[in-house]
Inverse folding.
């Protein structure tokens, strides 16, 4: 037996809640399966019948257009039926509890919940609550985890760099508030990336972040030297509340990715960003639209990765 | 049990197909054994349209029971399916369910003018109204046996017989 709520008793994926604690074999299996789905998404008919008749509920307790849309497209390309619930403006405002909402939707024979919530642990709570035939994907919970974003980043890195075992990867920006950064760090270290760096001002780094096995830099010139992959983070304006930074201009001056700073990394380094981008704050337009940017391929791969996760969760267990 | 020689079966199959193919014949191999066979047929029959490959995992009807194959491969159809004359190639023709899935997948690329089926060996036991136009040979086998095509490092093909693993493994 294991204590990982993400795995069933056969060690197969039951829920996807975080990249933390998932074995490399499962992460690689997701990436391999996603590779096959990339071909499907390039056809005229971008649909396979795998999840025909399944009901997938997008439970978004926090506003998000992009992530919700990519999950919706992924589910539709698997032929599932998708229902979007924007709960911030629905039952929660009428006082219904999170688990009451889930129970009601389960009574409508939901097969899967995709959950985004501002509270860390919300998806875990739902996963522990539902019947074993219902699967949960965490689409972002508070500052905790955003596993499908990290997986699509891993897919993109492998697509361009082929292998994880000889890479230097730098995560740049607001690590403190970023669930994406945490999920990236766990995935990168599990997949065998030998050197993961975080580059941020002291006020945007969580305490004891080095315990996750990363090297800390406060200076872009040092941190970007000989780097193969740059994972830019969004400056979380909505989370900052003014206290951590003097100004956006000041931030751009020291940590914004310009062509000049990018030139300090390896000449074939790639630049990723989870979106939506703050142009002129964490990334300069010349870089975002430049030839080292793989930000739009990330979006395309994100559909295939989410299709892979959904079908692996839903596949019949012997 | 004595199994037929796969290389001899392939030679027979190639001979049967030779008068039936032309410049507009497209071959599509089904992973894994069907792709090996299709590569050989494509070369030996001197076909010019690029070879297609299908992994029917996303179209199988037993996903609810057994899930995805752990090593699913990308399908690749590098020719225009609309209006094409396709020959599907598989190693062992049995229940017909794989072929049903392959036909469904092909139709998501376009509407072929015709689809024919070539199989190295037909072991009977059909559960779908599906028949092969070209077969290398026939072999009746009990239900609990699994017949598999294998390829050695030097590219030589052979058949092996296994007992099906019992449910739950």
């Amino acid at each position: 037996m294991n204590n990982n709520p993400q795995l069933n008793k056969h060690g197969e994926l039951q829920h996807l809640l975080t990249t933390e604690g998932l074995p490399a074999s499962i992460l690689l299996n997701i990436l391999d399966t996603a590779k096959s789905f990339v071909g499907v998404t390039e056809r005229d008919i971008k649909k396979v019948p795998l999840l025909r008749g399944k009901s997938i509920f997008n439970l978004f307790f926090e506003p998000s257009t992009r992530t919700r849309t990519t999950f919706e497209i992924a589910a539709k390309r698997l032929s599932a039926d998708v229902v979007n619930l924007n709960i911030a403006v629905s039952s929660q405002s009428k006082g219904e509890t999170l688990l009451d909402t889930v129970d009601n939707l389960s009574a409508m024979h939901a097969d899967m919940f995709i959950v985004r919530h501002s509270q860390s642990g919300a998806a875990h709570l739902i996963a522990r609550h539902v019947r074993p035939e219902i699967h949960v994907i965490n689409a972002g919970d508070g500052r905790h985890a955003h596993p499908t974003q990290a997986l699509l980043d891993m897919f993109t890195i492998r697509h361009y760099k082929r292998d994880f075992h000889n890479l230097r990867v730098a995560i740049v920006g607001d690590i403190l508030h970023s669930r994406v950064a945490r999920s990236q760090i766990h995935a990168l270290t599990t997949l065998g990336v030998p050197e993961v760096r975080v580059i941020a001002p002291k006020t945007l780094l969580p305490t004891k972040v080095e315990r996750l096995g990363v090297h800390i830099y406060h200076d872009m010139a040092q941190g970007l030297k000989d780097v193969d992959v740059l994972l830019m983070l969004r400056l979380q304006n909505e989370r900052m509340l003014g206290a951590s930074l003097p100004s956006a201009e000041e931030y751009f001056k020291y940590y914004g990715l310009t062509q000049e700073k990018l030139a300090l990394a390896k000449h074939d380094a790639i630049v990723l960003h989870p979106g939506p981008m703050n142009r002129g704050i964490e990334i300069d337009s010349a870089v975002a639209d430049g030839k080292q940017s793989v930000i739009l391929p990330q979006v395309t791969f994100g559909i295939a990765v989410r299709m892979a996760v959904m079908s692996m969760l839903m596949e019949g267990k012997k | 049990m004595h199994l037929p020689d796969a290389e001899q079966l392939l030679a027979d199959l190639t001979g049967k197909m030779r008068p039936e193919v032309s410049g507009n014949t497209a071959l599509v191999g089904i992973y894994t054994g069907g792709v090996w066979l299709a590569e050989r047929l494509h070369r030996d029959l001197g076909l010019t349209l690029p070879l297609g490959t299908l992994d029917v995992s996303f179209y199988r009807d037993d996903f609810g029971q057994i899930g995805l194959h752990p090593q699913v491969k990308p399908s690749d159809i590098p020719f225009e399916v609309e209006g094409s004359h396709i020959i599907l190639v598989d190693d062992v023709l049995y229940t017909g369910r794989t072929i049903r899935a392959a036909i469904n997948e092909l139709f998501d690329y376009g509407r072929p003018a015709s689809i024919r089926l070539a199989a190295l060996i037909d072991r009977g036991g059909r559960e779908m109204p599906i028949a092969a136009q070209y077969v290398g040979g026939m072999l009746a086998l009990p239900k609990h046996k699994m017949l598999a095509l294998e390829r050695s490092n030097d590219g030589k093909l052979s058949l092996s017989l296994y007992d099906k693993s019992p449910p739950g493994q």
Summary: Chain A touches chain B at residues 29, 32-33, 35-40, 43-45, 47-50, 311-312, 315-318 (CB under 8 Å). The first strand of chain A starts at residue 55 and ends at 60. The beta strands of chain A are 55-60, 81-86, 112-117, 135-141, 168-172, 195-199, 215-217, 229-232, 270-272.
